[in-house]
Amino acid sequence: MPDPSKDSERGAALLTVLLLVAVMAVVAATALERLALATRMTGNGGAVDQGRAYADAGMEMARLRIADLTASNPAKITLAGGWMGTPQSIPVPGGVAIARVTDGGNCFNLNSVVSGETEANLKVRPIGVLQFQGLLEALGVDARQAQVAAASLADWIDTDSVPQPGGAEDETYAAMERPYRAANRMMVDASELRAVSGISPAIYDLAKPWICALPVTTLSQININTLLPQQAPLFAMLLPGQLSVAQARQLLAQRPADGYGSTVQFWAMPSLAGLSPDAEVGAQVKLTTGFFGVDVSVDVGGTQVVERALIDARESPARLVRRSWGAGA
């Protein structure tokens, strides 16, 4: 032990004390920093939980509004009232919630490339495959690439392991740098399309605004009374090779302000003369909407929470069938 009575040893003792103080200061600063971080995280977690609660409330309000919309005229849903895509602000304590409702059925249903009541017996539906190919071609994808992508999509979902011409099953995915297997089940989210052979990032980016993964295998049900002119590819895909995107856009721009009163009236339009949709395709054109999309964005104290949901309005009351959460705009 150093002797403090000696000048040389008194300096060493002082240096030791200073080192201990410095170490304790670093430890204290680290502890305070972690405490502050934990406090901020707790606060952010509370804000997120509060935001989710407000988003749930906004989603329920949207569901009730959708129920009112479908009940007001069960035979026809149009754009009257400006309900589609119009942001609705809902004041909440400490912030605001903004809800938007869209027609969730005016899209290509990826699950329509197969048919079947259960996932144990999903079979390729050629007309659904042809329509997906037609959509991709309408968006500018090369015909051969579109054919491969459509066939591979059907193989991804169908139950069997036998690839279609140009399609892909397990052996294709097993040979990849990071091997995996075909899902052989219905898609739950449209983003799953990225895993399908033949779907390049460029093709996915093109298709993303036009596709959906509804919880049914029925062919895409297009509400001709709510389909916008800029969504013309979704109508052109019903009649690939018979109707161009430009013709479809012009047709939608001519829609009566109060919509069509019947599908017979629609198909009898002079501008559709010469087209020959079969009964299955003709039945895809609807006057009502079965699925609605709802986005609720909540901003509470600078923390933003986004809830996206799919509402099934085919029966009353309308019900929530799927939701997802995110952050940011």
CA(first)-CA(last) distance: 65 Å
Provide the succession of SSEs. HEEEEEHHHHEEHHHHEEEE
Instruction: Determine the number of helices (DSSP H or I, runs of at least 4 residues).
Output: 9
Q: Give the proportion of residues in helices.
A: 25-40%
Q: What overall form do the CA principal axes indicate?
A: extended
| Computed CA radius of gyration, to the nearest angstrom | 29 Å
The CATH topology of the largest domain comes to Ribonucleotide Reductase Protein R1, domain 1
At CATH level 2, the architecture of the largest domain is Orthogonal Bundle
The main sheet orders its strands as 1-2-9-10-11
Under CATH, the homologous superfamily of the largest domain reads EpsJ-like
Say how many strands there are.
Answer: 11
Q: What is the top-level CATH class of the largest domain?
A: Mainly Alpha
Q: Which structural category fits the helices and strands?
A: alpha+beta
Let me know the average pLDDT: 88
Biggest sheet, open or closed, and with what strands and sense? 5 strands, antiparallel
Domain T2SS protein K first SAM-like: 106-215
InterPro entries: GspK, GspK_central_sf, Pilin-like, T2SSK_SAM-like_1st, T2SSK_SAM-like_2nd
Subcellular location: Cell inner membrane
Main location: membrane
